[in-house]
Amino acid sequence: MATPTRLPRIAILGTGSMGGAILTGLVRPEVEVDGGITVTNRSREKAEALAQLPGVTSLALSDDPDANRRAAAGAAIVLVAVKPAMVPDLLREIADVLAPGTIVVSVAAGVTVATFEEILPEHVSVIRSMPNTPSIVGRGLAGVSAGSRSSAEDLAVVRSVFETVGAVLEVPESKLDALSTISGSGPAYVFYLIEEFTRTAIGKGFTPEEADLLVSQTFLGAAELLVSSDKTAEELRIQVTSPKGTTERAIAVLEAAGLERTFTEATDAALARSRELAAPTPS
Fold first, then answer.
1. What residues bind NADP(+), as annotated (predicted)?
2. Which pLDDT tens digit goes with each residue over 237-248?
3. What does DSSP say about strands 125-130 and 140-146: parallel, antiparallel, or unpaired?
């Protein structure tokens, strides 16, 4: 039997898509959180649903305006998973209840370590992260970056948190926004391609159910083949692309359409928007 992952008391402030995805990993049977997990969100209805999870104390801001402070007080790890524009006010709200040695983890796209460290007391460690939604099924990828006050031990603990929902890539903070345009936004790109591929299959006479099976299994199989193979994606693509064959003809059309340029422009646009979201709101 695998050794359980043991983590200290955790608070998740904001349980939307990202906070909720991380929570799914933390409540798995093989994860032990000493002192439990306290989560916050806006509505009573959602709070009541999350309270049914094992080891979770769920607080609704609609019932308790001090819920974020109550959750953060005494937690060894505090994950800040609210919308980027809400982060500064939230940090000011909880700053005085954070115990020395607390690790505060940013899960807010585009918000820098410097923003956190400027507002939070010096006895608090800050680590910035960018997980993605496949974390819900344990197939996530989280980029993590150390802050100026975080130790190797702090980073190791945060890595353990995110490894409950997938893989972890440690990168300098200067790369984290770019990482978010690939792994953070990336699932949406894949879903968009699946949508279009499915429409194409239906247009060729398959029923929606048949098209769903054809396309989803093709994407799943290709991804599993890539992960299990010692070949690169390019090598596997060439292996499938017989000279003068049907796949070669299709790839030529995609190349002529400027797919490489399109992906570059799309991720550049996502990066620019990430930086816009992180910019301070004029007072």
1. 13-18, 81-84
2. 999 999 999 999
3. antiparallel
Phi, psi of 163 (to 5 degrees): -70, -15
Mean pLDDT of 211-226: 97
* Helix 208-228 and helix 233-240, axial crossing angle in degrees, nearest 10: 120
Does residue 115 lie within any of the structural domains?
yes
Give the span between the Cα atoms of 116 and 60, in whole angstroms: 24
pLDDT higher than threshold 80 for residue 266: yes
| Domain membership of residue 113 as a residue range | 5-172
The domain total for the chain is 2
Question: Which residues belong to the annotated binding site for NADP(+)?
Answer: 13-18, 81-84
Instruction: Tell me the binding residues.
Output: 13-18, 68, 81-84
- pLDDT at position 96 over 80: yes
Summarize pLDDT for 171-210 with one digit per residue, the tens: 999 999 899 999 989 999 999 999 999 999 999 999 999 9
Does 143 share its domain with 258? Answer: no
Q: Percent of the chain scored above 70 by pLDDT?
A: 97
Q: What is the CATH number of the domain that holds 9?
A: 3.40.50.720
121 belongs to a structural domain: yes
Query: From the annotation, which residues make up the binding site for NADPH?
Result: 68
d(CA 18, CA 81): 7
pTM for the full predicted model: 0.87
Map residue 166 onto helix, strand or coil: strand
